[in-house]
């Protein structure tokens, strides 16, 4: 439990963390004293930049591991994934908490972030839907995660009470995730004239929801791989024994989900008869995304799970995660404002990227703090076989 | 109530829908709690069977 | 024309948002806007690019002074858009028939995209046709800027904590208070290129101008139907796309586009718990059956072992019995044989 605190704090990882946090704090001060105009490359034509594309869209999509893993285990009855649930819930909770944190930088008046919920709800807006769901889901994730904390703190009564709510929380979590994952895509349905037809589709909601499933599953594989080395000593026998099964099972799920996503991507082009755009430069880029980062990982996952090739699966997970990030950037930045001349297009400033790195660093630091202390990779001895 | 603008009409109908959704959630939970309130014995069975 | 509709996420539930291009309720009731809504007709053939409207707008809205004065017409050489200090700009477009001018400002949509996407109801479509903004509710998310098909709302990027969205109000406040009888820009136009009045009447006026001078005008009133219709209307000699007005926007309003995905939201809330609960119950039952089967199998196996043991015991017993019988028989036989031998000996002696 105290392995980290006993060592010197001046490890390379901690030094890098410290630098990123320091840079982030400086930009934070600039953001709240000089305004968005000073810190970002946003302008009147490009109101949403990398803080929306990466911190919000990618953050939410990649935190989908929470609802996919917990529903696989508790609703679809795949008990063998039980040891993967806690790490996934933790990542999702941190992911959503950081989305909310990052939004404080992006919106002009962060102190009014509760206005849509409690002061003046604009129910015709899909952003209202997103806000409501994210607010509720962060709460659900906090409750879902809390047993780990209560076990750590030795608060048995509270832990057992919340444990009983597992099913209800899981179902509610899937409802909320379905809604806001899809609504994030639906945000862009309001801007048909600005997004290139290959990426604009009335199916944007479906596309964002379906793609969040392989995104979440791949993130669980990817993050499990990263966590395995530094925290191997924290993992109990169940976790280590189930680890390979989780990877193989999730690879299968991700392969099928990517195949489904691929189909909807194709159908979306057909819906408005946009085939002819495939012969243009935009089409080439679209094909890179859809063939290279949807079809290919689906195939690689299938091969990996068929041949039990764990290494291939892990690389495919990284490829899929990158593909989802590429898609969110394509919809919200690359294909957005495609009619404007290149001089009026948006490219993020260094300070914007700095804040995004800062946010990720905060997340990784919180993750490191928690898994080194709380029962995430192992089952607390008092609650073995309690599920 | 008369609406001249579709947006205003939508605001009205969506307000109602969101309230309904809240009621759905509470309703589902209530129905489930009522339905399973006498299930304690059955619920515990798998635990006993584990031995 | 593209129909931007959203076929329901839940195909199985048969949800299809089959809304037409006009804003309609599902029963077919259509929404035509406030009956007395006002608007402005801009006639590009009359505009000379004098920028007097820009100056008037700046004055009546008490906006900050521009970098270059309003009588500097060189400003027209570069295409501009509205920004946080400018509600309206005039652009010059050089075409085959000489320069054409077009005034840019909020078009005051009949079904405003900004209002539809705002999650705090900061925008209002007023009965007088104007679309106004309330900074006291605004969170500064800038979704209105993303959604506006005309790129009108501008944001105070240099204000760190109290930034506002800035855009033309059709002088709603000033007219309501009685300070003005028409928007500032309209009153300042020396060429009557701008005409303020009821939207319905303006469409008639525009039609009449086109009918009288078909060679002077394009046969189209821009804004009559675009994005569900706007209260600011345009007639022009040059093609609209050549004076910076997109012709590919379609006639579907943003609220109509988002109606599809919004209609799916309550379906997820209503159906997902039931479906997921069902899946859960199925798995629970499967588990229970499996557990019972296992129990039964254990019982059967136990019984079998017992029976086998009993059979084995019986066999052993039987064997033992047999052995015993054989032993007795053997003893008897031997005794008899001995007796017979003794008899023989006796007889022989």
Structural summary, described in words:
The complex is a heterotrimer of chains A (387), B (51) and C (349). Chain A is mainly α and 387 residues long. Chain A has helices at 3-6, 12-34, 36-39, 50-62, 65-74, 82-106, 115-119, 126-153, 156-163, 166-186, 204-228, 237-271, 281-306, 310-334, 350-371. The longest helix of chain A is centred in the middle third of the chain and has 35 residues, at 237-271. In chain A, 50% of the residues are buried. With 51 residues, chain B is mainly α. Chain B has one domain (1-36). Chain B is rod-shaped and about 55 Å long. Chain C folds into 2 domains: 23-252, Alpha-Beta Plaits (2-Layer Sandwich); 261-349. In chain C, 40% of the residues lie in helices and 11% in strands. Chain C is built from 7 helices and 9 strands. In chain C, a hairpin with a 5-residue loop joins strand 4 and strand 5 (131-133). The termini of chain C are far apart. The chains are: A mainly alpha (387), B mainly alpha (51), C alpha+beta (349). At the A-C interface, helix 2, helix 3, helix 7, helix 8 and helix 10 of A face helix 2, helix 3, strand 6 and helix 7 of C.
Rounded radius of gyration of chain C (Å): 46 Å
Largest sheet of chain A: none
Number of domains of chain C: 2
Order of helices and strands of chain A: HHHHHHHHHHHHHHH
How would you summarize the topology of this molecule?
The complex is a heterotrimer of chains A (387), B (51) and C (349).
Chain A: H1 3-6, H2 12-34, H3 36-39, H4 50-62, H5 65-74, H6 82-106, H7 115-119, H8 126-153, H9 156-163, H10 166-186, H11 204-228, H12 237-271, H13 281-306, H14 310-334, H15 350-371
Helix pairs in contact in A: 2-15, 4-6, 4-14, 4-15, 5-6, 5-10, 5-11, 6-8, 6-15, 8-9, 8-10, 10-11, 11-12, 11-14, 12-13, 12-14, 13-14
Chain B: H1 6-35, H2 40-50
Chain C: E1 38-43, H1 52-60, E2 89-95, E3 98-104, H2 113-117, E4 123-125, E5 131-133, H3 143-147, E6 154-155, E7 165-166, H4 172-177, H5 184-188, E8 194-198, H6 199-212, E9 232-235, H7 254-348
């Amino acid at each position: 439990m105290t392995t980290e605190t006993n060592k010197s704090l001046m490890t390379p990882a901690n030094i890098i963390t410290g630098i990123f946090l320091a840079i982030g704090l400086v930009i934070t001060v600039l953001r709240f004293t000089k305004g968005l105009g000073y810190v970002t490359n946003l302008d009147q034509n490009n109101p949403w930049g990398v803080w929306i594309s990466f911190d919000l869209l990618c953050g939410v999509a990649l935190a989908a591991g929470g609802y996919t893993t917990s529903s696989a285990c508790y609703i679809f009855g795949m008990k063998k994934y039980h040891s993967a649930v806690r790490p996934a819930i933790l990542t999702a909770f941190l992911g959503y908490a950081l989305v909310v944190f990052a939004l404080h930088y992006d919106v002009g008046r962060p102190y009014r972030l509760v206005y849509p919920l409690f002061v003046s709800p604009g129910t015709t807006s899909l952003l209202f839907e997103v806000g409501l769901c994210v607010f509720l889901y962060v709460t659900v994730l906090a409750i879902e995660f809390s047993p780990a904390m209560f076990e750590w703190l030795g608060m048995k009564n509270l832990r057992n009470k919340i444990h009983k709510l597992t099913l209800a929380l899981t179902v509610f979590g899937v409802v909320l995730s379905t809604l806001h994952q899809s609504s994030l895509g639906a945000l862009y349905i309001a801007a048909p004239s600005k997004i290139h037809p290959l990426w604009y589709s009335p199916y944007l909601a479906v596309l964002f929801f379906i793609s969040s499933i392989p995104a979440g599953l791949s993130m669980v594989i990817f993050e499990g791989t990263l966590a395995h080395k530094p925290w191997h000593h924290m993992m109990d026998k169940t976790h280590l024994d189930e680890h390979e099964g989780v990877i193989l099972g999730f690879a299968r799920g991700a392969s099928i989900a990517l195949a489904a996503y691929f189909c909807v991507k194709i159908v979306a082009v057909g819906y408005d008869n946009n085939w002819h755009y495939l012969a243009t430069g935009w089409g080439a880029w679209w094909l890179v995304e859809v063939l290279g980062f949807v079809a290919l990982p689906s195939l690689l996952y299938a091969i990996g799970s068929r041949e039990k090739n764990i290494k291939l699966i892990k690389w495919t997970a990284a490829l899929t995660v990158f593909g989802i990030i590429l898609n969110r950037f394509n919809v919200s930045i690359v294909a957005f404002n495609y009619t404007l001349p290149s001089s009026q297009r948006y490219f993020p400033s260094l300070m914007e990227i700095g804040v995004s790195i800062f946010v990720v660093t905060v997340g990784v630091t919180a993750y490191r703090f928690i898994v080194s202390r709380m029962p995430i990779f192992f089952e607390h001895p008092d609650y073995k076989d309690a599920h | 109530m008369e609406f001249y603008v579709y947006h205003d009409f939508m605001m009205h109908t969506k307000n109602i829908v969101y309230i309904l959704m809240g009621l759905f959630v509470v309703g589902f939970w209530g129905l489930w709690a009522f339905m399973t309130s006498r299930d304690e014995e059955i619920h515990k069975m798998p635990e006993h069977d584990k031995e | 024309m593209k129909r931007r509709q959203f076929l329901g996420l839940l195909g199985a539930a048969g949800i299809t948002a089959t809304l037409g291009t006009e804003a309609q309720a599902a029963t077919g009731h259509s929404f035509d806007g406030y009956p007395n809504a006002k608007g402005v007709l801009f006639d590009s053939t009359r505009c000379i690019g004098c920028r007097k409207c820009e100056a008037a707008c700046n004055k009546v809205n008490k906006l900050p002074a521009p970098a270059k004065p309003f009588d500097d017409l060189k400003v027209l050489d570069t295409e501009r858009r509205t920004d946080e200090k400018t509600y309206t700009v005039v652009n010059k477009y050089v075409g085959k028939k000489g320069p054409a001018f077009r005034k840019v400002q909020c078009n005051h949509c009949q079904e405003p995209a900004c209002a539809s996407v705002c999650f705090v109801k900061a925008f209002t479509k007023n009965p007088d046709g104007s679309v106004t903004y309330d900074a006291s509710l605004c969170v500064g998310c800038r979704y209105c800027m993303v959604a506006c098909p005309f790129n009108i709302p501008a944001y105070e990027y240099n204000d760190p904590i109290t930034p506002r969205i800035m855009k033309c109000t059709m002088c709603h406040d000033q007219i309501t208070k009685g300070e003005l009888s028409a928007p500032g820009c309209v009153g300042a136009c020396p060429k009557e290129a701008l005409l303020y009045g009821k939207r319905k009447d303006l469409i008639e006026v525009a039609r009449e101008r086109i009918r009288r001078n078909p060679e002077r005008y394009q046969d189209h009133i821009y804004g009559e139907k675009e994005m569900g219709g706007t209260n600011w209307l345009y007639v022009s000699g040059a093609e609209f796309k050549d004076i910076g007005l997109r012709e590919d926007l379609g006639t579907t309003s943003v609220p109509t586009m988002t109606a599809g995905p919004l209609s799916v939201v309550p379906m997820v809330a209503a159906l997902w718990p039931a479906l997921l609960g069902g899946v859960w119950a199925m798995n629970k039952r499967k588990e229970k059956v499996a557990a019972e089967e296992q129990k039964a199998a254990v019982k059967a196996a136990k019984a079998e072992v017992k029976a086998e043991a009993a059979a084995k015991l019986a066999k052993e017993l039987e064997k033992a019995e047999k052995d015993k019988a054989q032993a007795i028989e053997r003893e008897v036989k031997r005794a008899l044989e001995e007796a017979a031998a003794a008899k023989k000996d006796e007889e022989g002696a």
